[in-house]
Request: fold
Amino acid sequence: MENNQAKITISLTDGKFEISGSELFVTQQIENFKHLIEKSFNDFESIPKKIKTENPINSSSRVEEIEIDTETEESIADIHPTIFALDNGKVNIICDIPGNTDSKKTLNVALLYAYAQKSLGIDETSVEEVRAICKIHGCFDQRNFSTHIKNGNPKLYLDKGSNKDRLITITRPGENKAKAIIKTIESNG
Reply:
């Protein structure tokens, strides 16, 4: 009876997770940890969608690639269904925008939208799209919109370009502020 040894190594940006032992043991552990592996892949956008297993047989190595199904990854609209909706891959903000002035509401729209866009893998957000969302939510101040965006906290997003080519990129503090806004909306919902 052959006792084939196998090993699986998963490097979640070099955090590594390794199982070794008999082929049967490793196969069982893959099944036991499959949900954690899938969750880890969903949590790290830069992780490859394949894992490799090595199974040495008679001192020659056989490498297998196992596909991890990441199609079950939740979108921002699945995670926060009372705040965001996706329509053909485009983010819509469907909640009331918090803030007691158009300026505060505009900044909240910019943060929420840029955060949602980033969750979809879009790092730069068009200010024109923020403008359109502000119009939908009744917080668009035509005379002061550009100033509201420009005077927003520079620690929350980077503002570059001008006119119709103007873009914002949410920062890590901006993401945290967006999460706090989301938490507030959901707790008041």
Observations:
- The chain has two domains: 5-67, 76-188.
- Residues 15 and 154 are 33 Å apart (CA to CA).
- Confidence is low (pLDDT under 50) at residues 45-72.
- The longest helix spans residues 23-43.
